[in-house]
Amino acid sequence: xxxxxxxxxxxxxxxxxxxxxxxxxxxxxxxxxxxxxxxxxxxxxxxxxxxxxxxxxxxxxxxxxxxxxxxxxxxxxxxxxxxxxxxxxxxxxxxxxxxxxxxxxxxxxxxxxxxxxxxxxxxxxxxxxxxxxxxxxxxxxxxxxxxxxxxxxxxxxxxxxxxxxxxxxxxxxxxxxxxxxxxxxxxxxxxxxxxxxxxxxxxxxxxxxxxxxxxxxxxxxxxxxxxxxxxxxxxxxxxxxxxxxxxxxxxxxxxxxxxxxxxxxxxxxxxxxxxxxxxxxxxxxxx
Length: 287
Fold this sequence. Notes:
Number of helices: 9
Helix content: 25-40%
Radius of gyration: 19 Å
Shape: globular
């Protein structure tokens, strides 16, 4: 088995509504999800020996547990199902996506590992069986199994994959804060009503942006209350020329801005770097 390299892309919540808190303390949400170009790079090769060699490199490797992460969980499940036998692997993940930032980097890594082994090793598992494995690692893992725009409809585990590519001009800014998803949801007081959300039917880019500009992320108030400087960052991004809207993605701390064109997004990136030189920021189109 030769050395393989896989691109593991970042996830972006364009909007997020919390519609119900469940008895198990999880939540049902409505969210329109897309993907963007900042990506981790996963290198995989087979090695001799009885143990896997998992390592992380890159700017955002700090804080990831070597013995308990989404990659080790994925491999454990594959072996538990006896899909991997008498094989060990060397896997390095170059972390270009900030850890604990709301961009789903770890979930994307696990989803790509599952897809890789299913195709290259030849498990040929049915889609529903791969989804079941993904769910055992984390809900966001199954979202990342397909790099398609996805609409979560507010019912647990139900999602709609969209064929339309939005190709939005996006500024992504990470303010060097790791947000605990569990903590943010526990502090959230905002519950939205279940209503008709037509975003997934919108084929016109301008109408979609108009719709999203009136949307929100229900978790944002809880995040800003704990980390006020995130609110200031959102306002600063929003003040830039051509910004249609700005908000956090997922449970934070990363903030996004959707711009009218790439030039305005690049200009905004330049301004953010001047004001916040220590923050990580990238310009991308949604993919």
